[in-house]
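ENTRY TYPE: paired fold submission
RECORD: A
CONTENT: sequence, then structure tokens
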Amino acid sequence: MAYWDPLPSVRAAESGPLPAPDGGTWLPAPEHRGTWWNARPGRWAERDWRNVPGPFYGAGTDTCWTGRLIAPMHVLYDDEWGAEFVYRQPRDSAQALRLLGAVAQDPMAGYACDGDGHWTPDLVRDWWRERGRVREWAAALDGKWSVSDREEEREAAGGAREYVAYIEGGLAEHLRHYLFWLSEGRPANPGELLPPLRRGPDPASRQLVGAEWPGRAGRATPPGS
């Protein structure tokens, strides 16, 4: 599946009713709309290292644990302070609306969706190379919270398991499409070669990525890439 840009859907939805933690909807006051466009300078530098590459990320959110009440497919909590971060980027308008609803609940303005202006192909590849650290953390969190006495932690353990499965499953292909988006400014067309995730030896994976990325000259994706 080609990269899907969530930002047009976010802009269209930000002034309308947003999903609420109780399952209903709410309408943010005009002065509070749009704070997820990174109103706080330096937020990118403060982002949580567990955020998956993409436009949305958390950086010093509140610790009220409302994010997974609205967007459990996208939001997870850290185990140091209980802050929120994004472990899966939205891939359609319904998912974008759910994540935006979670973002808009944060009174600390700790979310942003300007990641496209900061991520570079090299930064994405660096994150992928170090993904073992994220996977190890998520697996340990699942082991700890899945047997917790707190219902909220047991529920969040499911998100940690999903993150591990995502890292081991579809994330690589999604990030290759995101690399194309960052490099070309558009989604890849069917049959176009996707850029590789590796720069040199990768001790965490022997994934076949096909031929080297030729930039705008690529046209066909070799089998197994």
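RECORD: B
CONTENT: sequence, then structure tokens
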Amino acid sequence: MKLVVQVKLTTDAVQAPAVERTLRGANEAANWVSALSFDHFGLKGSVRELRKLCYGELKARGFGAQAAQHVIKRVADSYTALRASIRAGNLGPEGSRRRRRAESKPVVFRPDAAHTYDDRCLSWNYDARTVSIWTVVSRAYGSHVPRPRSSSSPSFVRAKRI
């Protein structure tokens, strides 16, 4: 059984630039992969095709293996969602202005959009009460304190067993 946890990351003045650089770098890389996907495959790029096309370059840009996989998967998933929205008619009928605009350009990611971390990019040492997170600079370390589980606290940890 896995435990899925949503956490809010707070950094100190030393680590904040590294984390921000990582977030912006991941989103810039996602925009690059998205543009490449759109040029080569239109709206139909798959994870496998994108991995063949982009993985080596993402690694050369300083991304770890898992971070590169997350960027590629994120782009492929965004195109899958876009195709589903078009098929469902959420962007209007064929030929409508809104649908034409969506189909005519690559998906774009905001510079501060969220990035996925999993157990290979984010690790917890419960005994020492520390957390380690991957950044493009190096691993950043910090301490964590368990927060009370109440819905009134904005930075509480929500857990879901799957």
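NOTES ON RECORD B: The radius of gyration is 18 Å. The chain is about 45% helix and 15% strand.
STATUS: closed
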